[in-house]
Amino acid sequence: MEEESGYSTRRRRPDSPDRISALPDALIHLILSLLPIGEAINTDLLSKRWKGLWTSVPNLIFTHQGNNFQRFAQFVDKTLSLYSTSVMVDKFSLCFNYRDALLEFSKTQLNSRVTSWLQFASTHKAEELYVDLEVDNYDEYSQHLKMPLCLYDNSSLKKLFSNCCVFDEPKGQVSWGLLKDLTISSQSLDGDGDRPPLRMILRGCPVIEYLELHNCLLAEEIDASSCTRLKKLVLNQTIGTPDLDISIPSVISMEISGAHVYCVTFKRLNAPSLVDVTLDFQMDKTELAQYEVPPQDVQNESQLLQMLNYVEQLTLGPWFVQALSLLELKRQPSPLSNQRKCLTIAVDFEDWYLYGVASLLNSSPNLEKLVIRVTSQSHGHNYKFDGEQNETLDNVGENFWEADERSFSFECLLTSLKTVEIVGLQPLHRMDEFFIAYEFVEFILGSARVLERIVLVTEKSSNSEEADGSLVEAQSLLSSLPRSSPHAVVSFA
């Protein structure tokens, strides 16, 4: 007999094989490791052979949302007490809202409970540790959970993510000899004295390859001189002094991003191996006033770009493209002029970006690939141009790229530019934006002598029929444009 839900109520025949019990141990452990720990425990009911196997599952994932944190805490305590003492943990993950938990526990009680869980992970030599305490107010760094000092002595740790946890100054040396991936979020790293936490942590990570600091209050230095395998550094939403001392001799790729970033220049930058750099953040001029930075001054942006002038692959967000526009309007030289071959910029084809785009093309004589990510200005603030500069922008005319008075030489168009990608166009909803992009494509096609392809990547639309019609119209317009390179192809993706 079948129930309405479609599930059969018939029991397995006594003589039929028990396929669940017949599964090999390796496969059972794999299945259990992919389940949340609560569901893994419930597999005890599937078969006698499965009973208790969850106590040796290599991944322990504890996640809590909503109310009744006390029940969650009891569940974690019981689970860890039943876990096999001889098993090493591959991944230990703990995720809950620390502030909400404080509604049911005192801070002392809660910290003691969580510390015991993290000590369990350290005792069982967890290779991956993920601690996310989801605190809403990131300003109160001192109110976050203090990570137990025993974690500094986990020589098995390979990957660590922490959000809203405080790393105190270690008492001895940090022993993270196998750690390759480290992300620290929402933490103050401006420790005093000779042993600030970040410095000591990096000294104890000889094989680290990836370091990300998110929403952190930085000290005046990031010294990764001893981390000879560190290849990527990410500073996202960072807060710190305008003059950072950074030594990252082995880093190949660096990204500085976020809506508000106050560590805007480098007092010293030791990064001889850098190849790929992303600068996608806006400088909060109001906040920077405390450092006596005028609201229309682009000295910090210019200095930062000049220090990174040697990198081959550069990605610039809207704020920096506008800064270059402002320098151009002030008739000041571009801080960029080197051998870079790949350039990515984020703009929305408004007038205040055009001079910046032109400046970048002019200062990249060996550019081979240009990628333009079309953005909306909800992403950040605009520079404040003065009256004369706004008047210049207002008089750009119908086609900025056809104006004879431009002083740009665009050497890359004559000898090297082969690929242009424009990503995020919306020909259906933002035709004005599309036509400004069309003027740019027209200019590139008519000027780039060794161009091989232009790829236009459009955003998907809910109205597919109308969007297809709009694309057909756009393709028709572009197909008739004259081309300087006989090999140039225009395609949509």
Question: What is the topological layout?
Answer:
Blueprint: H1 25-33, H2 37-42, E1 59-63, H3 69-82, E2 91-95, H4 98-101, H5 107-123, E3 128-132, E4 145-146, E5 159-163, E6 165-166, E7 181-185, E8 188-189, H6 197-203, E9 210-214, E10 217-218, E11 221-223, E12 232-236, E13 243-247, E14 253-258, E15 265-270, E16 276-281, H7 285-288, H8 299-307, E17 313-316, H9 318-329, E18 342-347, H10 351-362, E19 369-374, H11 387-394, H12 411-415, E20 419-425, H13 431-447, E21 453-458, H14 464-479, E22 489-492
Parallel strand pairs: 1-2, 2-3, 3-5, 4-6, 5-7, 7-9, 8-10, 9-12, 11-13, 12-14, 13-15, 14-16, 16-17, 17-18, 18-19, 19-20, 20-21, 21-22
Highlighted features:
493 residues; alpha/beta; three-stranded parallel beta sheet; 22 strands; 21% strand; globular; disordered N terminus; F-box_AtFBL13-like; LRR_At1g61320_AtMIF1; FBL13/AtMIF1-like; F-box domain-containing protein
Report on this structure.
This protein is an alpha/beta fold and 493 residues long. The chain has a domain at 23-57. The protein is built from 14 helices and 22 strands. It has helices at 25-33, 37-42, 69-82, 98-101, 107-123, 197-203, 285-288, 299-307, 318-329, 351-362, 387-394, 411-415, 431-447, 464-479; strands spanning 59-63, 91-95, 128-132, 145-146, 159-163, 165-166, 181-185, 188-189, 210-214, 217-218, 221-223, 232-236, 243-247, 253-258, 265-270, 276-281, 313-316, 342-347, 369-374, 419-425, 453-458, 489-492. The strands form four sheets. It has a 15-stranded parallel beta sheet with strand order 1-2-3-5-7-9-12-14-16-17-18-19-20-21-22. A three-stranded parallel beta sheet has the order 11-13-15. 33% of the residues are buried. Residues 1-10 have low confidence and may be disordered.
